[in-house]
Design goal:
With 230 residues, this protein is α+β, with helices and mostly antiparallel strands. The protein folds into 4 domains: 51 residues, Wheat Germ Agglutinin (Isolectin 2), domain 1; 38 residues; 50 residues, 2-Layer Sandwich (Wheat Germ Agglutinin (Isolectin 2), domain 1); 55 residues, 2-Layer Sandwich (Wheat Germ Agglutinin (Isolectin 2), domain 1). The chain is built from 6 helices and 13 strands. It has a 4-stranded antiparallel β-sheet with strand order 11-10-12-13. InterPro entries: Kazal_dom (IPR002350), Kazal_dom_sf (IPR036058), Prot_Inhib_GrowthFact_Antg (IPR050653). It comes from Agrilus planipennis.
């Protein structure tokens, strides 16, 4: 099959395309990708400009690697700092040394953490929102975001809350209270969400705090509720 003949034309014919491609404004974020032209681009946006201008496609995530076999591969990484590393093959490794050891001569490079599933949340900022979840490591976390961040590089996921409760041992005055709102007023003139939270305070204060009334302290319920149907 004959190659398509390419000839030189007047630059004005290319100017509209050049203007269109150069309109893209890219951030300066470092998130390197390798193009099919064997050139490393700062981030996918910079590559998209090259795609527009020259049809360059992404070869792989991360810096372009030299097509040379490694002279030596690490044999022992025990003394290396254990810090999760995301590889351009989509796998997570214990350290950069571990990546080089396990992927020796496979041209796998280190890439930003957000490219791997279990390290994507390592550097994110979580809110203080309290939506407690139980992790597959049988530990409670304030919310799912906190769970993922604290287990950077580990395959920890949300499981039913009863799994954590099953092996939970109450220590001192600590216990898990229900989230429903049925206010009670303590003798310290503080309103508690429900009787369970007041009981924790009674325990902490060594019985110096007691139940003063049902309802909020500003709108107490004078008559105690009856625990029967008729």
């Amino acid at each position: 099959k004959a190659n398509k003949k390419v000839s030189r034309v007047d630059f004005e014919k290319c100017r509209p395309k050049l203007s269109r491609c150069q309109k893209t404004k890219c951030p300066s974020d470092m998130d390197p990708v390798c193009g099919t032209d064997a050139k490393t681009y700062t981030n996918p946006c910079q590559l998209s400009i090259a795609t527009c201008l020259k049809g360059v496609q992404m070869a792989h995530i991360g810096n372009c690697t030299t097509l040379k076999r490694s002279q030596s591969c690490p044999s022992d990484c025990d003394n290396e700092t254990k810090e999760p590393v995301c590889g351009s093959d989509g796998n997570v490794y214990k350290s950069l040394c571990d990546l080089k050891k396990q992927t020796c001569d496979q041209f796998v490079t280190e890439v930003p953490l957000h490219h791997c599933k279990t390290t994507a949340s390592c550097n994110i900022t979580c809110t203080d929102e309290k939506q407690f979840v139980c992790g597959s490591d049988n530990k409670f976390y304030k919310n799912e975001c906190e769970m993922k961040r604290e287990n950077c590089g580990k395959h920890v996921y949300v499981v039913p809350i009863k799994r954590c409760l099953a092996g939970f041992m109450f220590k001192g005055c600590q216990k898990i209270c229900p989230t429903y709102y049925d206010p009670v007023c303590g003798s310290d003139n503080k309103t508690y969400s429900n009787l369970c939270f007041l009981e924790i305070e009674i325990c902490r204060s060594k019985n110096t705090v007691s139940l003063q009334s049902m309802g909020t302290c500003t709108e107490p319920i004078k008559e105690m509720p009856k625990n029967y149907l008729y």
